[in-house]
Amino acid sequence: MAGSDELHYPERMITFLEGLWGDGFLSPGGADEVMRVIAGVDLTGLTVLDIGCGIGGATGVLVSAGHAGKVIGIDVEAPVCEIASGRLDAQGLGDRVEIRRVEPGPLPFDDASFNVVFSKDSIVHIADKESLAIDVFRVLRPGGWFLASDWLTSHDGEMSAEMQAYVAAEDLDFGMASPARYRRALRAAGFVDIELVDRNPWYRVVAREELERLTGSERATFEAAIGADELALQIRTWEAMIPVLESGEHCPHHLRARRPRA
Predict the structure, then answer these.
(1) CB-based contacts of 192: which residues, under 8 Å, 6+ apart?
(2) Mind listing the pLDDT tens digit of every residue in the chain (262 residues)?
(3) Nearby residues of 19 by Cβ (< 8 Å), 6 or more positions away
(4) Less Cβ crowding at N or C end of the chain, within 10 Å?
(5) What are the distances in angstroms from CA 87 to CA 56, 82, 99?
(6) How far apart are CA 124 and CA 182, in angstroms?
């Protein structure tokens, strides 16, 4: 997993993102989007790995609504792991959830440890998609599923000036890849039943609604929470993001692939 000594999600960022996306979530769509990612796969009683669990919103949904038997959530940032652990314990889910802070690098688990590997909008921070696919395949049991959402770019190679400006505004060490590269990486790792679903049509509408909240109906609330200067930075990020959503160059996707049973 990728990471650095600098926190991607300090307290002020967590406060902002939860205010925008809901308690426990550092990416859009909340519990509804988690359920769309896992739709059609019965998690009941299964052991699930949540890569990039953040502050635990999705991890909790996998247990409470997805009925997973055990979820291990991992992240590279200690503060978010502490928040996740505390919140999930408070929700009474501590006996079915374990949060671990891990070092960047290969997944620290034995081969064939999980029925499902899940991730919600966090593997964008892992630049080497090929190694990621191989490692996920390794820790999955035969027949197991990789179910994820991620932030993609529509093409490989140099990004447009507008996309470069957006990624710079995010300042989150994004390692974005195209749907074609993800498909190649998953196929080369040995996955079958590979599906990629473009969520750009959904999020380009939602992002405009989010910008309206930041600049209009909820501006005072966000300013009170994070300060006018920080809010201005976030507004500039959304203003940079919307054009590349409209062009389709920024294209969030759902990803799905299965390790063969034999």
Answers:
(1) 257, 258, 259, 260
(2) 433 445 677 888 899 999 999 999 999 999 999 999 999 999 999 999 999 999 999 999 999 999 999 999 999 999 999 999 999 999 999 999 999 999 999 999 999 999 999 999 999 999 999 999 999 999 999 999 999 999 999 999 999 999 999 999 998 889 999 999 999 999 999 999 999 999 999 999 999 999 999 999 899 999 999 999 999 999 999 999 999 999 999 999 999 999 999 7
(3) 218, 221, 222, 225, 226
(4) C
(5) 7, 9, 11
(6) 11
Separation CA 107–CA 131 (nearest Å):
10
Q: Residue written as tokens 């093409």? A: 155
DSSP string, the chain: ----SS-SS-HHHHHHHHHHH-TT-SSTTHHHHHHHHHTT---BT-EEEEET-TTSHHHHHHHHTT-BSEEEEEES-HHHHHHHHHHHHHTT-TTTEEEEE--SSS--S-TT-EEEEEEES-GGG---HHHHHHHHHHHEEEEEEEEEEE--BSSSSSPPHHHHHHHHHH-S------HHHHHHHHHHHT-EEEEEEE-HHHHHHHHHHHHHIIIIITHHHHHHHH-HHHHHHHHHHHHHHHHHHHHTSB--EEEEEE----
